[in-house]
Write a structure and sequence with these properties.
The complex is a heterodimer of chains A (129) and B (167).
Chain A: H1 2-7, H2 12-32, E1 40-45, E2 51-54, E3 59-64, E4 69-75, E5 78-83, H3 90-93, E6 103-106, E7 111-116
Antiparallel strand pairs in A: 1-2, 1-7, 3-4, 4-5, 6-7
Chain B: H1 3-23, H2 37-48, H3 50-68, H4 74-94, H5 103-126, H6 136-162
The chains are: A alpha+beta (129), B mainly alpha (167).
């Protein structure tokens, strides 16, 4: 009785709308949750100017950090740390990165690498107050 | 003061109260709220038409933000964007020939328009990062659930109000 009571509150258009929205939302998960490959990496270091790296160009970059030189290797649209003068080598073990929005870093050497799927036009990350 | 003005004042007062009470509720995930104040909008729309509903909603958004101290802050911008979007969608759906949508359908449309406009506003003004849209499916799911429940609630309220016992 309760069940039939609730469905009677839906008009035909309501039912069609509900089912359509349900299907659209389910498909929006697969649309919005796929990661897009990155095109650029922004490398920031305490010891040098920020560097914009094109991931389509296979190259080895030497980045000066606070402990010494870290090496970043770019190949096939991916980027990784290959050497770093830090103790735990977490940056090297984190391996290849190629998803837009990914961030990797060598914290002891004060170097961060942020991957972006397109060049960001924004002047800020977020505004909160 | 005309009859409509009194209705607007009364319903706006009710909506502001609900809005304030709801802002005190803890939210499980940022951005997810039951949107109880929007039930007042929906009720006024169905009983008294779109223009009264728009008045009540805009007064509610502005007055509640003044009381909460968020006037002209990002919270206010998001709230206003959501209100304008849902009022626009409600206006279109309400004036569809043959009025095909009931309270539940109207409520779902309003909830989805509300949250979509808020995410777009947040992206354009405050968090210009495409990762923000990762949240959209979750927020839309919440909007579908809260919109459906809200619509059912308004239907029940309308049944009570329209039943002869209360007249």
């Amino acid at each position: 009785m309760i069940r039939s009571g609730i469905t009677s509150l839906f008009t035909t258009a309501d039912k069609i709308l509900f089912i359509f929205s349900f299907v659209a939302i389910i498909s929006s998960y697969s649309y919005f949750w796929q990661s897009t490959p990155a095109n650029y990496a922004i490398v920031k270091s305490s010891q040098q100017d920020p560097l914009l790296i094109n991931l389509d160009e296979a190259k080895v970059h030497q980045i000066k950090g606070s402990l010494g030189i870290s090496t970043l290797e770019v190949k096939d649209g991916k980027i990784r740390f290959t050497t770093s003068p830090c103790r735990n080598k977490i940056c090297i073990q984190s391996g290849w990165h190629n998803h837009g929005g990914d961030v990797t870093a060598c914290l002891p050497n004060l170097i961060s690498v942020q991957l972006s799927s397109k060049q960001s036009k924004a002047n800020y990350d977020a505004i909160i107050f | 003061m005309g009859y409509n003005d009194k209705l607007i004042a009364g319903f706006a007062a009710l909506a502001i109260t609900i809005h304030l009470l709801e802002s005190a509720l803890p939210s499980p995930i940022p951005g997810i709220k039951p949107g109880l104040a929007n039930l007042v909008t929906l009720y006024v729309l169905i009983r008294h038409g779109w223009s009264l509903a728009a008045n009540v909603t805009l007064i509610r958004v502005i007055a509640a933000s003044l009381l909460l101290g968020s006037f002209l802050s990002p919270t206010f911008a998001m709230s206003l964007a959501g209100a304008i979007a849902s009022l626009t969608v409600l206006g279109i759906a309400w004036h569809c020939p043959g009025k095909p949508f009931g309270p539940v359908g109207l409520s779902i449309l309003a909830a989805m328009a509300h949250i979509s406009a808020q995410v777009v506003t947040a992206y354009l003004l405050f968090i210009p990062h495409t990762s923000l849209f990762t949240l959209l499916p979750i927020l839309l799911t919440a909007a579908l659930i809260s919109g459906t429940l809200g619509g059912i609630l308004v239907s029940k309220i309308l049944e009570r109000v329209n039943s002869p016992i209360n007249t």
